[in-house]
User: Fold these one by one.
Assistant:
Number 1:
Amino acid sequence: MAEVINMPRLSDTMEEGTVAQWFKKVGDTIQEGDILAEIETDKATMEFEAFYEGELLHIGIQEGETAPVDTLLAIIGEKGEDISGLLSGGTPAPEAAAPAAEVVEAPTNSEAQTPIPEGVEVISMPRLSDTMEEGTVATWLKKVGDAVEEGDILAEIETDKATMEFESFYSGQLLYVGIQEGESAPVDSVLAVIGPEGTDVAAVVSAAKAQDSTATAVADKSAQEPAPTKAVAPAPTSEKTVVATPVANPVSNNKVIASPLAKKMAADKGIDLTRVQGTGDHGRIVKRDIESFQPGAAMSMQQPTGVEQITELANSQMRKTIAKRLSASKFSAPHYYLGVEFDMDAAIAFRSQYNSLPETKISFNDIVIKAVGMALKVHPEVNSQWYDDRIVHNHHVHVGVAVAVEDGLVVPVLKFANELALPQIGVQVKDFASRARNKKLTPQEMDGSTFTVSNLGMFGIQEFTSIINQPNSAILSVGSIVQKPVVKDGNIVVGNTMKLTLACDHRTVDGATGAQFLQTLRGYIENPITMLVS
């Protein structure tokens, strides 16, 4: 049956949208998740994906055209399906004649009858990424009573992937704050209330609470008794809210308040933000403060020795996610470890000769990743994943590369790593590392790994073990190259070696299987020229 897709509401203030670009044309096959078009709202240009599969039968709004929210955007259905009835008026005919949805009675107390005054806006915790379920308020840049202009930055919000500045789309006075600094709350929880000075906040809160209970009742009723048609009851005219208390001064509790750009610049320059005097709003550290920072001038600000001090850091969304996933992996997957030590003399000579080529530079990490990709192609049992009802052997090789960032660890993925040339691997890894530190990686770039490489050799770590990145079956820990005496042909000579440790999930990878993989890997790393002729 054909599905009608209307112009979506992509922001809380969006009333109409413009189709900037279509990525599909009439007659194309559509898969769920395909990007259909780019749509311009009043705030941004966003990609709009399909939630249905079939053939694109009709486009209702052409590139460059603007239309109100809920206008017919496209129709997806089966090839050759008759959609003439759906094109009448731009909405599906059966839905137009559908009976009204059952109405759930709102609370009868007087609070439910009081509308939220015009000009008062309730702001909810935004969904800042497709996987975001809750957010943490890292920093409030406004406090209750402050005047707020449209475009002002209200707060910095941490998601599971990034810390983002959240700006106001309204002007007025900040009347209430619903989530304090360091607190986490689900998407759509009340974040703040903005309105004109002198607003009866208690009445606004009461009215919004009544609307909240009505909306919850409708949702519960719909979940228990599915409606026979697609008709939907009108949404309330105002967002829900809860009672909140004034926010604390954002510079209290020894918290460092800094813009994301200032944090990045400080990290790149090795500057301790606790020693920087902020000149932005409410003492916020901004770009100019980092640019003008003089280490010597800040020495007098250090605390005297002999004083006990601690710093308490609220768990960020990234740290919570890391803790949850790695704990699940460590305590559910039976890990075992295989350690090896490779002769790196040939790899050192190979890299030196390779880098002598014009405009070419590869690292030992690039060599390892390339060798891993080619060895995994030979051993799909290691390039596998465990599920409760099956084991999947992957015949494509997507290598995740662990990258350390300020708040923890992310794992961008090199797709088809075995097919990439060494310089291509180097370029991609550098790009991933740079954007990871700036929290600019997309969810798609961190999804789909079949194996992971974690390299701490650049930090001087000679040997370590890692926790498997589930549902993958293995992860390789790479140490530093060490010069030491080795025995070759019965003689003690100076050699270069590198230790690697393979962590395996015993449910999918037996000891002999892991050992065979490491033998293949040894062949490529100790004789890297073979990677160019295989």
Note: The longest strand covers residues 474-488.
Number 2:
Amino acid sequence: MKLHALDMAIIGAYLVLTLIIGFYISKKAKANLDSYFLGGKTIPWYILGLSNASGMFDITGTMWFVSICFVYGMKSAWLPWIWPVWNQIFLMMFLAQWLRRSNVMTGAEWLKTRFGEGKGAQLSHIIVVVFALVSVIGFIAYGFVGIGKFATSFLPWDLTTQIGSLMISSENMYALLIMGVTTIYVVKGGMYSVVMTEILQFLVMTVSCLIIGIIAINLVTPEQLNAVIPVGWKDIFVGWKLDLDWSNLIPSVGEKIKSDGYEFFSIVMMMMIFKGVLVSIAGPVPSYDMQRILATKSPREAAKMSGIVSLVLYFPRYMMVAGLTILALVYFSPKLNAMGPNIDFEMVLPYAVSNFIPVGLLGLLLAGLIAAFMSTFAANVNAGPAYIVNDIYKRFINPNASNKKYVQLSYISSFAVVAVGITFGFFVTSIDSVTKWIVAALFGGYTAANLLKWTWWRFNGFGYFYGMLAGLVASLVVPLVLPNVSALNSFPIILCFATIGSVGGSLLTKPDDMEVLKKFYSTVRPWGFWKPVCDEVQKDNPDFKPNKDFKRDMFNCVVGIIWQTTLIVMPMYLVIREFTEMIVAAIIFVVTTVILKKTWYDKLED
């Protein structure tokens, strides 16, 4: 594709502006680690929320969403539950407040408030650092694949390069260059630069999304869309089976559904709900999402920050997803059908963008999509090194180093994390494969230990270490040993290994120190199986009241999931012009908003 000079100028101007902002703000990040990684805990909650939403608006995920919307239609609104997308709802309702009350810098440091300082606590500290780095590296590799595919589709130069005997493809060279630019401003400015550039990126992305939705509405009539989709594509609800027959339209789509393992969709839904509840209560993985929570000013603001993410993210993003999907369905189905069994659904987004966006708007859109990648990548680059510097170097190697030394080491760690992530990215061939590994296998290994740490007093540091170790090993081994088992179906297997490690490691070792448990329980105030600890706390403080909000929190989570889902389906119905369904979704949105105002927002406390 050949870009117009105006489009290239817009993209170039955006990249330059991003660097200027990053460098201008970087002076604030040099004071100490708290400033570098958490912005000094002075950034307003709504700014952090917009930044967090921007970090989740990644281009690789957007390409995946467009591909599943193409295949599954309105039913694709359920498939992000595999992450699960409603972990933000659980954070919003109670988990963000629990996390923020610890007043620490990283997820690994947070464990000290739960397990204390003993050997088990040290082992738990080490294993969560390992997990955090593996997950950050996995996300960087995931982004590397997506931005390479995307850039090659639009940017006009062939950058294929040979270094000695090593041939680097044009896709990989584009990814290296864009990652390089992003790394520069992230390393220079830390959290301040990440957050402030992400606000710019979020605004650009939102405008781009709305433009694409409007263009799609104007270019695709309902009659055109109906001619290229199977019966049931517009129906959001399903029976026992999926029942989408693509055989007379694009036979390869049917093969895609079989390979995904989603034919018996009701079973898939039940598995996603089972996994989603457990993963959500376990809390966020130790990455940028947790970092934003720990960077808020108070527990109450942490909850509001998590709430605003869904409110601002999903409507514009799914307007873009639906718009690109119907443009590709109507105008590119013949070309995709001609690919036969080699069809690449991850290229649906580039196909639609390159043919239907006018000059000028195309440059803005491409800048927005590049921004989507940069924001996610930047958030991970800023989160990962915190574990290296704060949780390894400062804790075990040099606890008395100067702030300048810690910040300098943060620069080096950032470059190292990026280099390792890119290296793994060279070996990843499919966005879909790495997405499913992250959301099913990796999260499966994380869930058991992190669920029990909130809910069971007898769970100790040794249990956390062995549970996380068993889960991490299983998440790497199970996909190799059972390659024909889908990523979603491998979750219970990995969860089983992680649970055995967690429970066995706890029961075969001594309980954690009661003073540590009392301080954790009285400060964080989780619900769950804490009676022995609660009794001890009440001996010292008879006025202490245990958390009895479990039923209210779960009710709010159910209402919140419905609320969040309406934010996904409303823009999709709008773009495909199913206005009755859109109005119904809007009414449900208003009702659930009123309920949450009374049962959640009005009851927030620090």
Note: The beta strands are 161-163, 166-168.
Number 3:
Amino acid sequence: MIGKRPLRGHTLEQIREICGRLAANQPVRRSLSPWGRLHIDRQLPFLCVYRRPPDYSDQGTDRLVVGEAAYLKASGDAGSKKRLTALLKGVVEVLSAKFGSFLIIEIWIARPVSLPAGRKPGAPPLFTIVSQKNRTPVETIETLQGELEMMHLPDVTTSVLVVDRKRVKPPDLTPLLSKKTCDTFNCHIIGIEVNPVYRNPKNGVAIYPEIRSAIHRGLSAALKQTFFEFSRNHTPRHPPHFHALGRRAVVKAVWDVDKRLAGVSNQIDVKLLVTPTNTNEQWQHFKALKYKRHPNFSYRPLPFRPAQLKKILYQIPVEKVEDPTLADIFEQKRMQLDRMITLVQDRNTFGFLPESLQLYGDVDNQLLETARTILSLKRIRKRPNPASPALNADEFRRLAEEEIDGYRQQLPAFDPKVRIQRDIPGLFVSHGRLLISATIRVPEDRANALIQHEIGTHLLTWHNGVTQPLHLMNSGLPGYEELQEGLAVLSEYLVGGMTLTRLQNLAARVVAVYRRIHNRSFIEIFNELTDEFRVARRIAFYTAMRACRGGGLTKDAIYLQGLVRLLEHLRQGGDFTLLFTGRFGYDHIPVIEELRWRKVLGPPALLPRYLDTEAATEKLERLRTGVNLTDLLAHDDRAA
């Protein structure tokens, strides 16, 4: 890598050094003097350019090119012109020789137009594409125009105008390269004039960061599609996907922000902090009092000071991340962590439920109706099987450790810990550990299904996230829980362990959450589950506890919702193994695909062992044809 020392004067030796690195397909990252930066990831047939105007302030526009795989931002003052032209000519010469053609897209802002007195200005287009008539490739212009027109921005009308000009350049600046140079190296230049709606119109300086970020993301996607079209039609290189032309090199600022966000995330174990420590004792007390008195749940003390942790959170310089995709993820994660800190701080207060709704969402009418339909189904009565006893905590732990050993044979680094604890109900995964309640009793015919739920999904994706370069793939992208639980529940079906009782328990959680959102008490929820839906009292107690814990945790609705969305994902032909890359949500699937194409992320280190079985693969293929939820039930437990 070339160091960060400025190109003082862009000496011939320095330009040769840069061109030598490009010829060897090595990355170039150089600061320019008096201002600017050259970043070229690898040999690519394009370059984004921004020149800072010498005669007026252009706050924030340079951010629109950073984050691309190849960009140049430089001073537009007359004293830098000759040196900049020499540098640019050298870059174009090397890369055009590799690709036979080259594309430069220069970005600048629209300048205010002086109008005669009394004349009102019309609404200017958001983007004006500037091309050279009879020279710029028509298909490339059409692609850029189409992609920009599809951009969706909050409260901003997206309009695009295409104009032909003799020379492609910003106002008051000279062209980047002469016509002779462009002809010699088969170089095409396109301009994009941007209406600076991301700045305060009163002073022209203050930035609206959300609007600028939205334009940056949309423009970046449009540029990649344009470069993709140009590469496939005007060079011998045919990239497999437009995201493959995205930035691969990840700079230190990204790793720093990612690590620090993950560090804060790892301090906030919402599941543990909002799960009562005395659930089993309160069940016994509730039962002894004939199910008439509200239980009194206790919680773990917070292991951090909320205000101090938020201070640390907002000291993380997310704004320094150039890559628009990663910057957006980091900003979303910071907002989520802020809400999580507030959530656990507000346990057992009126603020807890609204904060839970912000994090995990509401229960819509369609999901509620689905849950009610499942709860209305009647089970085929079966006699207890004396040959299938319930496993205690030690017995279940042994089975879990055997499953972990199977994965460890494939990948020795897979080494999660299994603990038995008295202060938790049931079992769940926390920070790569499987926690088992000391009082748990697992029916033997359900053991494998639960092992695949916890180990084959939660521990597996947790470990796969550890193996990825981004720490957030381990601690979890915002909203990852819904997809995680959908995968975990589906794994129970793929190993033959889905029963109507299990599906109805998930449906009961949806009803309980819905009732808690609408201010029903613990006892009201318990009574509805037992009286109207005939849920067993012990199950109804735990279901009501889960919905009411902390003041009202809406997370439990995502098990059934996640399963519904996963079935739709498969029906639409979505990739199944991609979902094990780490911990992320449905909305981030396109982002994961993009980062995979850009080689920022790799494939999953491990896949569930059940995928090696013929039965599971056959079931997956069947799911792609479209099935109902009741089609997931074990054959001997179907609704009558």
Note: The chain has two domains: 12-112+123-243, 269-303+346-382+390-637.
